[in-house]
Amino acid sequence: MSPSHLLTLSFDDGFAKSFALIADIHEEFGLKAQLNIVASLCEPGSVPRDRYQNTPTGDWKLWNDLAAREHEIGPHSCIVTFVQALSV
User: Fold this and answer.
1) Rg (Cα) of the chain, in Å, rounded?
2) Would you say 60 and 53 are in contact if contact means Cβ atoms under 8 Å apart?
3) Which pLDDT value is given to residue 46?
4) What is the full DSSP assignment across 12-72?
5) Which residues contact residue 58 at a Cβ distance below 8 angstroms, ignoring those fewer than 6 apart?
6) pLDDT at position 51, please?
7) Beta-carbon contacts of residue 63 (< 8 Å; ≥ 6 apart)
8) 3-state SS class at 5
């Protein structure tokens, strides 16, 4: 029997503590998380984009661990362009 409902939740903040907690909660319910990372923020010399980035972000070790636990790791960027602001 196929599932009657599909739902995707994605998490974009990239903070190490959040991703670990989100993964644990999903696993408790037999689910997999969609975690979007800003890989450049873990590189040496990266500059935090705002006051929230003083919180430790994930790193390659964490992301590989989460991927090994079958969570989906996706890309995110530091720059957000709102579609309404683009000229066509």
Assistant:
1) 15
2) no
3) 65
4) ---BHHHHHHHHHHHHHTT---EEEE-GGGGSTT---SSGGGGSPBP-HHHHHHHHHTT-E
5) 14, 15, 16, 19, 37, 42
6) 57
7) 35, 37, 73
8) coil
Q: Confidence class of residue 23 from pLDDT cuts 50, 70 and 90?
A: very high
pTM, entire model: 0.69
Residues 87 and 15: their CA atoms lie apart, in Å, by 33
More confident residue, 77 or 60: 60
- Point out which residues pair with 57 in neighbouring strands: 15
Indicate the pairing of strand 34-37 with strand 10-11.
parallel
